[in-house]
Amino acid sequence: MAERKRTKEEARKYIELLNNCMNLQIDMQHAHLKGLIIPKEWSEISTIPPVQVKERITIRLDKDVVKFYKALGPGYQKRMNVVLRIFMLSMLAKECEGAFDRDWKGDPI
After folding, report:
1. How many CB atoms lie within 10 A of CB 45?
2. CB neighbours (10 Å) of residue 39?
3. How far apart are CA 25 and CA 30, in angstroms?
4. Which residues face 37 on adjacent strands?
5. How far is residue 8 CA from its own chain's centroid?
6. How many other C-beta atoms are found inside a 10 Å radius of the C-beta of residue 42?
């Protein structure tokens, strides 16, 4: 992807993306150093205060995905939200490019 100047909103989302990724990387490195498969710090993700008001929805996920996150213990839905937020921020910061640059109507995200 060719470097280009980010808009202020893209830059803000990029900073938020880097912070989220850095925190995730720190958690994973800490677990690796302790020889753990799943870091205990992941359970702390559920204690992170919500960025926005939560909205209740119904979602259908692959069975193995649900099983994996549930096996991580209490707070698995909040951890799933963090993973989705990192993907969203990477798209909004224009770190990822492709068909996801527009919503289902074709309007830019």
Report:
1. 19
2. 19
3. 8
4. none
5. 21
6. 21
State the Cα–Cα distance between residues 82 and 1, nearest whole angstrom. 25
Q: Return the structure tokens found at 107.
A: 């309007």
| 22-75 per-position pLDDT tens digit | 877 776 666 555 544 555 655 666 566 666 788 899 999 999 989 988 988 888
Q: Which residues contact 70 (CB under 8 A, 6 or more apart)?
A: 76
DSSP per-residue codes, 28-68: HHHHHHHT-SS-GGGGGGGGSPPSS----------HHHHHH
- Please state the domain extents for the chain: 8-101
The residue whose two tokens read 């990822």 is: 96
Burial class (CB in 10 A: 0-12, 13-18, 19+), 33: exposed
pLDDT at 95 over 90: no
